[in-house]
From TrEMBL:
Keywords: Hydrolase, Signal. This is Alpha/beta hydrolase. InterPro entries: AB_hydrolase_fold, BD-FAE-like_dom, GDXG_lipolytic_enzyme. GO terms for molecular function: hydrolase activity. It holds the Pfam family BD-FAE. It comes from Psychroserpens burtonensis. Residues 36-168 form the BD-FAE-like domain. Residues 1-18 form the signal peptide. It comes from the Bacteria.
Amino acid sequence: MKVVIKFIIIIISFTAFSQSVSTHTYAIKNNDSLKLDVYTPYNIKDNSTLPVVIWMHGGGFSKGSRDGKDEQQLMKYLAKNKFIGVSISYRLSRKGTKTGFGCQCSKQDKLFTFAKAVEDFLDATNYIIQNGDSLHINSKKIIAGGSSSGAESVLSAVYMRDYFIEDTTNYDDIKYAGLISFAGAMVDENYITKENAVPTVLFHGTKDNLVPYSKAPHHSCKFDETGYLILNGSGVIFTMLEKLNKSYYLFRVEGGRHEVASIPFSELDNILQFINNTITYKKVIQTKRLEFKQ
């Protein structure tokens, strides 16, 4: 009898931690067929809806993929923890260009690249909302997330869509409930207001040489270089949220560089706890954590 009971427990545990994955085309733009992968808990009930994290991978707008090893691991983790995970492809505008996305890429091209990525993220979000019933999405609990260039894009999509999108009419129904940024930054922190501020998770290294932690040039470009563009990183963003008495979770790595953009798997439990407390239970939580680079 004991053996049978133990066997049943193992089967239930396996089923609860399984997920199904489906792939969808959310937009076709020129020669780009933009897809997203939806990770859903295997045992979800027909009429159930869950919070969703829509994820945008990093890679300097020239590489990376929605189904990379880390992206898949993150999505599976979300599905195991009663979230829908969505990992998206988007236009890699700097792929194959001579100037890349560093100091030889002009400020205008950088802003144009941000704008296209913002549009793609908003279009992916619209697709998720429009197909919310079949995908089991709770449209009131949509969390935008990304790392590096993906984090720059989601910060812009959540807080600066009016800056990057000329006509936002198609996106009026999109209301994000939260945001996760691993080594991200934005053009102007003053676009964060009491009205649009959402609980925001920020991971960043203070010596990031690509995406600045505070207010500094993107890629550490010099003033006379064509790619000189001031961005405002996590240090500026959390200060604005604190001023507005809004929730944030800041994980600052003293001396850390751009490696902090990597998905911090050991911290995901803390991140989801913050999201649940601030979004589900409406608590205002302001957390600062400090780690020193080894």
